Amino acid sequence: DAKxxxxxxxxxxxxxxxxxxxxxxxxxxxxxxxxxxxxxxxxPQYIIHGxxxxxxxxxxxLIITEDRKSSTLILPHATLRDTAVYYCxxxxxxxxxxxxxxxxxxxxxx
Amino acid sequence: xxxxxxxxRYLITVTGKKLTVTCSQNMNHEYMSWYRQDPGLGLxxxxxxxxxxVTDKGDVPEGYKVSRKEKRNFPLILESPSxxxxxxxxxxxxASSGRAKNEQFFGPGTRxxxx
Lengths: 110, 115
Hints:
The complex is a heterodimer.
Chain A: E1 9-13, E2 18-23, E3 31-38, E4 45-50, E5 55-56, E6 61-64, E7 70-75, E8 84-92, E9 104-109
Chain B: E1 4-7, E2 10-13, E3 19-25, E4 31-38, E5 42-51, E6 54-57, E7 65-66, E8 76-78, E9 87-94, E10 105-106, E11 110-114
């Protein structure tokens, strides 16, 4: 699975959009981008995934660049409860494991 | 409610005393796995199971055993725990078909301390 690079931490004001970047320059054609988050030692929670088109669900939007070397997770209106570690993961779809990196600590502040 | 449950949530034990951490899911998922999380090392996969009676090693299987006799249960067994197995453990499951096959559901975690 391709390696990802994320900033170690970010701050966001409550109610504003949180934009979390991820670089995955070695991604191959059959690999998907997945995002999970982990709130304070709870079990990781799935957010969204995509291949090359932008995706949106009730939690977030995922923007993938045309060359697929990077992506951005967007939380449109961040709340205090969105404070968590966000993991960007690249893997073959339905692969046998998720390879978690260090992730980005997002702190949402009032 | 769809969920993955783990027991116990917290356990303090001593070196060499066999223990089992149970994991159960109520979503009829075929795929289940165990991860451990350690500071600075992130989450690493220990074992996984594609279906009943089908298990395979992940990245860090040494010192662990698993079994998958029923679809809903995937216990993690530490035959002779050692202090380096002190960690936060997560069980996860996902479907192998349908819309939910992209999403892994994680349990709440088991914090294990081996003295």
